[in-house]
Amino acid sequence: MSAASTTMTGYGVSPGLACAPLIRMAPPVVTDPAEAPGDDPAHEVQRVWQALAEVAEQLSAIGASGTGGAILEAGAAMASDVALVQAAARHICDGVPTAHSLTLAVDDYCGQLEGLGGYMAERAADLRDVRNRAVALLLGVPMPGIPRPGHPFILAAEDLSPADTVGLADSDAVGLLTERGGPTSHTAILARSLGLPAVVGCAEAAALPGGTPVILDGRAGTVEAHPTPERRQQALEEQARVRQQRRAHGPGRTADQHAVALLANIGTLGDASRAAQEDNEGVGLFRTEFLFLDRSEPPTIDEQIHAYTQVFTAFEGRAVTVRTLDAGSDKPLPFLRLPPEDNPALGVRGLRTSTVVPGILETQLKALVAAQQRTGVQMRVMAPMVSTVQEAAEFADLARSYGVQTVGIMIEVPAAALLANDLLQHVDFASIGTNDLAQYTLAADRTAHTLAHLLDPWQPALLTLIAQVCSAATALGRPVGLCGEAAADPLLAPVLVGLGVSSLSMATPAVAAVRDALTQLTLQDCKDLAASALCAREPAAARATVLRMSDAFPATASERQEA
Fold first, then answer.
1. Which pTM was predicted?
2. To the nearest whole percent, how much of the chain has pLDDT over 70?
């Protein structure tokens, strides 16, 4: 007798439908404290050093291949940290087996990181991935990684490291299911960048054994285990239909030709090169931190001009929105030498760093203007973490004094959203960063797995703040974009347009699906969806209502005209 069909729910973070058997990620190797220690402690320390060095090279190589470069480079930096070797060496000298010495060293550091909370707690998962890879080398066992069964499968895991997620790109995986994680986790962001259907934060998935037939819906966030043969056939036909579907091209438009600019998020020169080859209208978020990472001294103005010129040249004829250096909290930069903080997420970060480290912002503005003059790109510059009217006014005055023609601000904290009417009078545009705005509005650490439900972009409080910002922007005639992960959701994108968002910026692979979603709806449809979402009291109810209403609309603009 076949098992009864059951449906479980998580967070749909990357749209698409996948139907395939489940394969579980192999657990990491457990080191044995009773194993015989090596005869020569110095030789064992050298082995640890070599294993970590090889892991650093592996992670750098994977990152250089494209997706998730900055995240993987951070892992490589962890593997290269001499402090980790020194910590393992102390255990080795105490007679602890080599591989277990590294486990103890990593456990100790992870405990410290998790005690700090926030971004640092999230880095503990990356450090454990470094440990798992190095231990596999020390013990001569297969490296942790993606299964290779030779047929399509849905990968199930408690969670994935960035390196493992990137490894899905050249595997037979057609979907991803994790027990932990949330809409803004590294796993979610990378799955979207790969265009892989994914559901995260589905704790019930832990009970599903390998081999279970599954239908995964990355848009609705549902996982159907043991579907009937009829449901399976229906899902496979839907998969094939979506793959063969003629996709829309060109600028973003609703069915009645209301313009919605569809833009790419980029963070490295590699990101820029790939995004420039795709069908988008430019860049809605250029994260400039890549040039500043892992440096003891800030890049010179010439280094910055060269890097920005390369990015701008790739997008000549299109718009590029640049976010000035967003450091602090989840992006600590050594050369800033910021003092330790009990709660970095509420400390010196974003625009606030310019008041602590004079000259950094001014140099960046000079370099950006010089690069624009060399390329003629349509450059817009915005400041992160603006909280007050004074900050908005002072940044606008400073940027314009250096020759920036179009100046904007990020709306990432409730204070900025509530006073949007006052802030926007000093700038030319605004961009809403939903990841941080959700974190601060719901008082929920965006890296805490147990709080992922609070960071759902469908939260009524978050949608209400977005609506308030858009209302203020419309009254003043200012464009307002959105560059958080919410922009990549084809179900939520029409709601955001209905609220008044004029541009959406996302991971490059997500643009096509969002474009298609918008072409099926008129602006009034989007407004109706937005009104219904705002009336819902819970994220799940908002999502379900919009899904039901969307499915009721004619499938295409041509069908609508015929009707």
1. 0.73
2. 88
